[in-house]
Amino acid sequence: MAGFDKRVASYEAALAGLEDGMTVLAGGFGLCGIPENLISEIKRKGTRDLTIVSNNCGVDGFGLGLLLEDRQIRKMIASYVGENALFEQLLLSGELEVELTPQGTLAEKMRAGGAGIPAFFTATGYGTDIAKGKEVREFNGRPHILEPSITGDFAIVKGWKADHYGNVVYRHTARNFNPLAATAGKITVVEVEEIVEPGQLEPSQIHTPGIYVDRLICGQFEKRIEKRTVQD
């Protein structure tokens, strides 16, 4: 079964083949469950003109925000500008192409892409700028717009545990966009906190089957808190 072992020894090997101009799907929500080390490796590689698909673009100086600093992102497909001041600045100045997408629609675009569905109809966004130029059909008396699905050259994903074969388990709310992104990349790279021996994961608890995963690496994570709220 050695040929099914998805483990790689370095982050350089994990992102081998990533080139300028590619589309990268990134899991995570805010700073929860983001593939932070894979993002840092993209920064180190200096890959440019990327189209990044993610719920948001990290924060200033961390997560996908690191790639904004070096202007490595050409286009961002996201649902939220969030707490990233640089993202907002580049959007307003026209330096960064941004396609804002309703959050549920973005999730379904990835899910549909991973399932081989080229497009789908949704009522979300009808009558707004989101719908401009898109086909409209009526279902059950309600207008819907046609949304194309999304796939990427690479998907970068953060998991909690995985076995050698790339079967992945996510922890709590880190199971956000990660399972969706994992299915929709031509090459899916997963970084996890722990890699266990085959047979140690309960099959019914696996969230992403290893058939979707091409490369797997174990890393150390900072796990920043985006907003800390305390009470007296």
Describe the structure.
This protein is an alpha/beta fold and 232 residues long. The strands form three sheets. Strands 4-3-2-1-8-11-13 form a seven-stranded parallel beta sheet. It has a three-stranded antiparallel beta sheet with strand order 5-7-6. It has six helices and 13 strands. The chain is globular. The protein has a domain of 149 residues: 3-Layer(aba) Sandwich (Glutaconate Coenzyme A-transferase), CATH 3.40.1080.10. Belongs to the 3-oxoacid CoA-transferase subunit A family. This is Dehydrocarnitine CoA transferase subunit A. InterPro entries: 3-oxoacid_CoA-transf_A (IPR012792), CoA_trans_fam_I (IPR004165), CoA_transf_BS (IPR004163), NagB/RpiA_transferase-like (IPR037171).
